[in-house]
Each structure stands twice: as structure tokens, then as C-alpha cells.
Design brief:
Helices cover 12% and strands 33% of the residues. With 171 residues, it is mainly β. The protein has a single domain (2-170), classed as Purple Acid Phosphatase, chain A, domain 2 (4-Layer Sandwich), CATH 3.60.21.10.
Amino acid sequence: MVKILIVSDSHGWKTELANVIDRHRDEVNYMIHCGDSELEGDAKQLKGVNVVRGNCDWGTDFPEDAMIQITDDILLYATHGHHYNVKMTYVPLTYRAEEVGARLVCFGHSHVATTFKENDVIYINPGSLRLPRNRKEYTYCLCTIDKNSVDVTFYTIEGNIVEELSTRYNM
């Protein structure tokens, strides 16, 4: 079993981001920040976190995207999403997922917490830790990968499960 913490769009919040990461650090195999942390690359809050650059992250501290081989057959692709116009459509992002052979795609930018599966690819936007859209809760998520399923569980910033967003996918 592999467990991944996914956060995005914390927009300068240090304490809140650190609280979420510290809450799960010892139970996850990977930690992903999908951009707009607005922190420096050496920020202590991001220690051990795979971070990609968002449109509000200035400088060159973070890569535009990241690919992590999670299991033998699951490649994770992480991006902020602004280069793929995710506020309007997911089509360019789905093309990119196909291009790189990703089975799991993590992205942010829209601040809308969502997950969906298309063409055997699971897409996860954890929402925003600071400025959520379409919901009042500040959210992040945990993705748990088993050999037969992928569970995407959304949480409020306080650590409470958001059941109506959480989903199990069969592999």
C-alpha cells in the first residue's frame, strides 16, 4: 500500500501548511504540493515535499511539473495546472497525462476540490488550503493506492474527512 499527501494553493500560509504536513508526515510515502505555496524552495515547511511551481510562485525554486514512479504500473504526474487551462477545461491536461503515460495526475490552480477518472487516469485537485472555491472548507487530500483500488480522501484543514468529495476507484 502506498499513501500520498496532496496539497495545493496554500498561498503563503506557513503554519497551516506545516500543521497539515506534520499531521500526516509519518503515515505517507510521498508528499506533493501542486503549486502556489508562495514559499522559498528551502522553506522548512516544505522539507521532504515534492513541490511544483504555480503561477504565483516567483523565481526558479520549483520545477514546472514532476513525475514520480509510485508503483511499477502507476506514474504520478504533478503540475499546477495554469499551463493547461484547468479553470476552463481538463482536455489539455488529459492530453499531457496521455503523453507522459501518467495513471495519476495531481493539479491545483482552480482551488476547486475534485477527483475524477477518465481513460483509466485518476485526476486529483486537492482544493486550496487558503482560498477554496465552490466550497467553504479549506481542503487537502490523501490518496491511498492498493493493488486493487485507489482511495482519494479529502480532509478539511482541521483534519476532518469530507465524505461527499471522497471517492474509491477500482484499478
